[in-house]
Amino acid sequence: MNAQVETVIDLDAIAHNVRVLRGFAQGAAVMVVVKADGYNHGAVQVARAALGAGARELGVTTVAEALELRAAGIDAPILCWLNTIDADYGAAILADVEIGVSSLEQVRVVEQAARKTGRTATISLKVDTGLNRNGVSVTEYPQVLAAVRALVDDRVLRLRGIFSHLAHADEPGNPAIDRQRERFLEAVALAKEHGLQPELIHLSNSAATLTRPDLHFDLVRPGIAVYGLSPIPELGDFGLRPAMTLQAEVTLVKRVAAGEGVSYGHRWIAPRDTTVALVPAGYADGVFRSLSGRFEVWLGGALRRNVGRVCMDQFMVDLGDNVGNVRAGDRAVLFGGGAGHPHALDWARLLDTIDYEIVCSPRGRAVRRYVGTGR
Ligand SMILES: *Cc1c(COP(=O)(O)O)cnc(C)c1O
């Protein structure tokens, strides 16, 4: 029995995408980013498939996300890089989770946690090279380096890496990228002047992995590309395959007479006698109401336009003169990677956003189902 709304996750696509990324990485190790529950694909399952396909490490946002992977028995290196001051660093240290540090205050709380557990904490320094978001600021950096150096000497901390994050990676020729590269290398050099020897340095997200080999360094950190979506759609799909399909099972097919309105507010009036199908997924499941009347689903071998408003639990599509064999029980693909399917990018364009947000949207009654072996 399949759920009436499903996100089908193709683990073979994940494995394929990791292999594609390894090809682009040209010898740099691949850290697969599985934050936000694997971009809503399921962090544990994605991590296993990715590691099986040759990814070396995992990246997440929080300690809690890292611990979930450890609890599932995953023993690959895991880095988490965005935590509050009161996060459970002790648990991270005991689970051998690497902590991305962005301030002197954070160095101090990780130090305290390390002393309390009696274990050396593994950290990476996240340096701000121009994104001006997370990361050690230029002004605080020398103090942070001095503090880390002392703690490394005391074996309270182990400095595994230095990393940073790009602001314009999706515009490969943007000069801001070169500025960030320069600042990054300066930050690494300054750490070395403080007697610190990071084991690895890294800067590239998906876009830079695919387009900027000069930024690969020791390791790359792709996220969205692992899930088969292009970080720079204008440059094509780079051979990636979308891993997520959002689909729902048609509940009802019925005739509607010319002049009848469909769904709340009767925003669509049947221009002629027609046949419509009810798809039981709505905004509670991640189908945005603002898509009403503007999107299509793949159903019965054709694209079918949504008519009338998207509701909390359902929407209608018009089958017109081409009903085909569509009947209750058939699967309507809202977006996916198959031939003819609408793509997450179609929704992104309609909604003035990026496909990252689209794959993060399915929720509510949408149940995940995995296909493929991930090998
Ligand atoms: C999310 C994230 C990534 C992955 O970015 P993509 O654009 O999805 O490849 C890499 N590094 C950091 C620090 C991130 O927060």
From TrEMBL:
Pfam families to which the protein is assigned, alphabetical: Ala_racemase_C, Ala_racemase_N
Active site: K35, Y264
Catalytic activity: L-alanine = D-alanine
Gene3D superfamilies on file: Alanine racemase (3.20.20.10), Lyase, Ornithine Decarboxylase, Chain A, domain 1 (2.40.37.10)
Keywords: Isomerase, Pyridoxal phosphate
The name this protein goes by in its record: Alanine racemase
Cofactor(s) in the UniProt record: pyridoxal 5'-phosphate
Residue span, Alanine racemase C-terminal domain: 243-371
Organism in which the protein naturally occurs: Nocardia ignorata
GO cellular component: cytosol
Functional description taken from the UniProt entry: Catalyzes the interconversion of L-alanine and D-alanine. May also act on other amino acids.
UniProt binding sites for substrate: R133, M312
Pathway: Amino-acid biosynthesis; D-alanine biosynthesis; D-alanine from L-alanine: step 1/1
Isomerase keyword on record: yes
InterPro entries documented for this protein: Ala_racemase (IPR000821), Ala_racemase/Decarboxylase_C (IPR009006), Ala_racemase_C (IPR011079), Ala_racemase_N (IPR001608), PLP-binding_barrel (IPR029066)
